[in-house]
């Protein structure tokens, strides 16, 4: 990584260089602002022909993640391209925090809440951020 | 310049650059061919892309080659400059310390010299890495090999039949592989094809499929190269690749496996049931030992 992205940190493990500890800061003007979200990122054998595996380790209230921290993001699945990098993947995840997409959910209850009562959902997301990610 | 000449897939300097007429994006031949084996789109713009739409960009190969040479020269110039600065620095420090303790001068000098480690440099001709002090002797050998090859090329154009046959015998050319639909082939048929192509024909059908498709990609990438390798070298590379893939145990990320719902829930369940068991066994123990207390 030639120039680090502000708000994103990825450090490879010493004993396994394919495994990264990642911290993404919650984007400003989002319910996740002020939170530091830990993730794990793993480069499988197929990388870069196949996507890296990423999941949240910090609990997060977001319609496109499930309670195990797995992330629903097109570029981590069928829209993966070998021209994408760890950097671009993490930037996309940060962007996903800014713009949750309840129409393509991974947690149905969160997405439902997000659609029917957005204010309350955002409030809950803020609470979870304060409780788990600070 | 450095970023422009890098392949978007492997981020190395482009090796046998190929592009396509559809969107104009450029990759290493082997990188894009490997990707197109599974997905038929351009990795950058997602336009539909077939490997027959690829064409080689010899100009870019030339640019990369001259950039590599220029980079080496810049590096050497910088290094000799930093050496000069370092010498000056050692001298200055030496003078400073000399007043206090003359024994330390040698020490600080040694320390700085130790920092200047042996650096591996890339041969601009064959792209192999060598120790800095070995590069000159290697270059002599490497370039003379190229010159020999160059000579044999000129002989090829000469009308002498002997020479032509001589050359043919010298370079063993292997037949061009064709794409196959592996699911339509039996194991023995595939083994026979591998044998005919001159690539190893041992192992399971799956291994042969992987080997065969990798061989096609490598063979075609070699044809895109401005300086194609002899097929014996290509075969050697294929063996090395296979060895690297097979000898590596399939790496699994133990933490990522927890992401599986079943194991996750099961773990939680066992944890709680273990707790209940422990509590009940303590209670039992208390009941049993109570009379003795």
Automatic annotation (TrEMBL), chain A:
Family matches, as InterPro entries: UBC, UBQ-conjugating_enzyme/RWD
Location of the UBC core domain: 1-134
Residues in the signal sequence: none
CDD domains: UBCc_UBE2N
Pfam family, one: UQ_con
UniProt protein name: Ubiquitin-conjugating enzyme E2 36
TrEMBL record, chain B:
SAP domain ranges (all copies): 182-216
Annotated compartments: Nucleus
Biological process terms in GO annotation: DNA damage tolerance; DNA repair; protein monoubiquitination
Pathway connected to this protein: Protein modification; protein ubiquitination
The reaction(s) this protein catalyses: S-ubiquitinyl-[E2 ubiquitin-conjugating enzyme]-L-cysteine + [acceptor protein]-L-lysine = [E2 ubiquitin-conjugating enzyme]-L-cysteine + N(6)-ubiquitinyl-[acceptor protein]-L-lysine
RING-type domain sequence ranges: 7-45
InterPro entries xrefs: Rad18, SAP_dom, Znf_RING, Znf_RING/FYVE/PHD, Znf_RING_CS
GO molecular function, one term: zinc ion binding
Enzyme Commission designation: 2.3.2.27
A GO term from the CC aspect: nucleus
Top-level EC class as recorded in UniProt: transferase
Keywords: DNA damage, DNA repair, DNA-binding, Metal-binding, Nucleus, Transferase, Ubl conjugation pathway, Zinc, Zinc-finger
Family membership: Belongs to the RAD18 family.
Protein name: Postreplication repair E3 ubiquitin-protein ligase RAD18
